[in-house]
Each structure stands twice: as C-alpha cells, then as structure tokens.
Amino acid sequence: MSNDKHDSSFMRSLCFGRIDEEQIFPFPEMKTEEKATLNQLRDAFATWLKGRDADFRAWDVSGEMPAAFLQEMRDMGLFSLVIPEEHGGLGFSSTAYSRTLQELVTYDSSLTITAGAHSSIGMRGLLLFGTDAQKARYYPRLATGEVIAAFCLTESGAGSDAAALKTRAVKDGNDWLLTGEKIWITNGGIADFFTVFARTGGEQGQMTAFIVTRDMPGVSTSPHEDKMGLRASSTTSVRFDNVRLTPEQVLGEPGKGFKLAMKILNSGRTGLGGGCIGMMKKAIALSSRQAQDRQQFGKPIAEYGLIKQKLGHMVVDCYAAEATVAMVAGLIDRGVEDYAVEAAISKVFASECLWRTADEALQVAGGNGYMREFPYERMVRDARINRIFEGTNEILRLFIALTAMNEVGRELKEVSKSIGNVLNDPIKGFGVLSDYARRRVNYATGYGKALFTLAHADLKPYTTVFEACTSTCLPWPLSSAGSVRRCIPKTPPNPNKKSISWRSFVARSHGACAATSTRSTITMMS
C-alpha cells in the first residue's frame, strides 16, 4: 500500500493494523473566506425562506414544485455552488458545499435535493472528468440554473447491480446511438443536462458515460412519480430512443463508465451527509421545544428520564455523524485520492443516524407527530430515502467489509506465492515474508504496535483503547476469533462520567472490528 498521504486511506490502513493519524489530525476546518460566504448565504436563506412552511407543506401535498419557486432558486445561485468561479460559480470546497446543504435542508428537503442532485451527482462527472471544451460549453448555463443536471444510472433491472444495465450505446461511424430507459431520476422532469451511463460492448459490465441534453432528438421523460417523501422534487423516468451522440459527448474514457460512476457517487456523498446532519439538527430543535412545552402529570415531559435519553441519543448521533462527514469532506479537500471506504461509512452512518433521529422526534411529539399539520411525519418520509439512494446501505456495508477483506486477502495471496517462489526470487520472497512475520510478532508481543502521537492528551483514555483494538482486531489469520473482547475494558475510561458514545462504542466493538474502529475514530475526531 502507498505511504503517500494523498494516495492512502485511513480505513484501509487500519485493516492492516496501521493508524495513519496524519489523515485525521488536525481536524479539518473550513477556509476563512468560505466561512464568510456561508454566513452571508445563511442570512440570505433566512430572509428568503423563513415563514414559508405553509408553502412547502402545500407543495409536498400536491407533489410538485412551482416553476416560479424554481426560478427563485436560480436567482439565489443554488445551482452554482461547486462550479469554479471562473465559469460563474461559487467554487465551494466539499466542506463548504456540505455545510450549505446542511443549512438549506432546515427549511425544506425537496428544495435541498433539487439543488443537491444537480451539484452532487448531476454535473459532478463534468466537474471531475470533463474536458476543457466540455466545461467551457456547459458550465456557464449550469451555474445560472438555465440548465439543470440529472444523474442517469438506475434502471428497472439494474439498481445496486450497475453492471446489469440494459441501456446501450452502439457505434455508428464516429457517433454513438443511445437506446434505453432510466428510472427514478431526481430532477428528471426539469433537467436539460443528463449524465448517462450505457453498455458499450466489449467485456461484460463495460460501460461508458455520456453527456446528453434534452434538446437532442429521441430524449423524453415520464410524468412525475408519486413518491413517499421528497414529494415536491422532480423524479421521473428518462427514455432515450436512438439518440445520436458525437464523440464530444463522451465523458471520460470509453469503457471506464463504472469507475467514473463510483467516483461521482463517492465525491458527492458529503452533500447527502450534510443534508442528513441538517435534518437531524432540525429534528433535535423541534423535539427539545416540544419536550419543554408539552406537560404530562404536572410537569414538562423533558423532565422524564426516557425523554432525556431519547434527546441525548439524538444529540450524540448528530455530533458523531457531523464529525464523520466533515472528516470525509476534509479528505477530499486535501486532495486525498483514496476515500471511497470513508465516504461509504459516512453515508451509511449519517443516514442511519438521521432515520433514528427522525423516528424518535416523531415519538417525542406523540399524536401530533402523526399529523400533517406538524413537520414530523414529513421529516420521517423525507428521511427514509437516504438509506436507499446513492447506494443502498446494505450494498455499502458489503463494500466496506469486502474492501478490507480484499486488501488483506491480496497480501495473504502474495505471502503464499512468496513461500513457493522464495528460492527462485529470494530477495522479493524473503521481503514479503519478513513483513508478514513482523506484523505477527507485533500482534503477539505488542512491540512496534500502532500508536497515536498527534492526539491531544485529553484523548489518551480513548486512544489507548483504540490502539489496543487496532492490534487485536487485525483480520484473520493476523488475529484470533473473539480477540476484540480482550481490548475493551469493562468500564469507560472515566467511570464517573457516563458516556452514551462509549457504550455504543463497546457494543459495536463486540459485533464487528470495522464498527469498533469507526466509532472510536469518530469519538477522537469529534
């Protein structure tokens, strides 16, 4: 594995028993100039959106966002957030972009997903892989919102299994002919710029990304879908009937579409994470106010232990999720290349935390929470999709675990190969074997184990446990079954101070090494 800080992954290193602390210390901070811009945006959002709850509720019921409000979004610059300044955008970093969506979602989720789908995934491929000519051609109108973007990957038979795409693009001279249908496309009914993925022949699963615009003959969209949540946002099918595409419409390299799609989704996950955090903060504020105002048995329900526990868990989840998303955004902004596992963890963790928080907020509200008159039921409906789109949490959990197993398995395969070839290539063979043996000795004796040197002294109780877990949670055969239990003390580092996050950390430690490392890392990063 590379030791270059721009080419290494904290979680991948952790799976080999290495704590790459330079990746997580110091904790990332937003640029000063972006803080100033974000403060201005926050004030502008309040002036523009405060007091419009009745409008948002009505649009949720009707299932459509008025064209006039969409124009207001354009006028506010909500489609220019990540587009470089030289092309008319704000040029926000991942950190500032995530925080912007965090602020925006406190007003309305449909509004946020409309802006977010444009920047997080719709035109993200152009940002990451577009040629200078493509960027010069499309950026200006994407920045003003004259052209809104959508991401077209999902099909009826190809959701999590992206390699099962049936949409095809076949060569016709120098051009391509695109045919197929994409479903559940956010912004599908209002977009004029589509990032489309299609099979292009060759080996099974090979695909290519294309830039398609609505004005091309053969492009059509279905009526709006009648959805459970995010109802005012546009979600449609998009159909392509022999759409002729020139070579200039190819995004990235032909045949590399799958990797391109995954990188787009990874890069945009901080936007989804920011939305989850903003919704959690809104739910916590509503629940706290409800618990103070609602009286039962002669006192506010906020004084009862079970309600305190609910609110406490909500705050802990929000705090940890915000730390995780901020860390991933910081990795991206620093130019780290390998952050796919961290991005997946942030998406799973933030969306699961949001779901628990929204559910508990409704529970604290009681019967009121079930009524459309109040915001809780809509919050629950809007929150539910986050565990499904941009990669289901089940698939991402598999990705997180299998990535770690694959890395370790690759090394063990190299060890096995070196044993067989040690006499033919002694320098390489003994080098691989000695590295493997060194880790075995480190695990058995504790000599040379991974340690934190950059963490603040106040974190020592937590870093000590994390270091112990890293040594004993190495993948088999570097560790033994059940060894994780030996690194978890029976009491928190400070027995006199209750800690919900610590209890969660211990519980997850007994369940899975990956969860142990993640929760402990979150505690320290926070």
How many runs of DSSP E, i.e. beta strands? Answer: 10
Structural class: alpha+beta
Q: Could you estimate the helical fraction of the residues in percent?
A: 40-55%
How many alpha or pi helices?
17
The proportion of strand residues reads: 5-15%
Query: What is the makeup of the main sheet?
Result: 4 strands, mixed
Question: Which residues form runs of ≥5 with pLDDT under 50?
Answer: 426-430, 443-447, 474-486, 495-526
From N to C, what is the helix and strand string? HHHHHHHHEEEEEEEEHEEHHHHHHHH
Describe the global form. Answer: globular
Give a brief outline of the structure.
The chain is α+β, with helices and mostly antiparallel strands. It has helices at residues 10-15, 32-49, 53-62, 67-75, 94-104, 109-122, 124-129, 132-144, 257-293, 305-333, 340-365, 376-384, 393-421, 426-445, 460-472, 500-511, 513-525; strands at 149-152, 168-172, 175-186, 193-199, 207-213, 219-221, 235-245, 250-251, 295-296, 299-300. Helix content is 52%, strand content 10%.
Task: Throw out a few tags for this protein.
526 residues; single chain; disordered C terminus; four-stranded antiparallel β-sheet; alpha+beta
How does this model look, in words?
With 526 residues, the chain is of the alpha+beta class. 52% of the residues lie in helices and 10% in strands. The chain has a 4-stranded mixed beta sheet. Strands 2-3-7-6 form a 4-stranded antiparallel beta sheet, covered by helices on one side. It is globular, with a radius of gyration of 25 Å.
Would you spell out the secondary-structure blueprint of this structure?
Layout: H1 10-15, H2 32-49, H3 53-62, H4 67-75, H5 94-104, H6 109-122, H7 124-129, H8 132-144, E1 149-152, E2 168-172, E3 175-186, E4 193-199, E5 207-213, E6 219-221, E7 235-245, E8 250-251, H9 257-293, E9 295-296, E10 299-300, H10 305-333, H11 340-365, H12 376-384, H13 393-421, H14 426-445, H15 460-472, H16 500-511, H17 513-525
Parallel strand pairs: 1-4
Antiparallel strand pairs: 2-3, 3-7, 4-5, 5-8, 6-7, 9-10
Helix pairs in contact: 2-5, 5-9, 6-9, 9-10, 9-11, 10-11, 10-17, 11-12, 11-13, 13-14, 15-17, 16-17
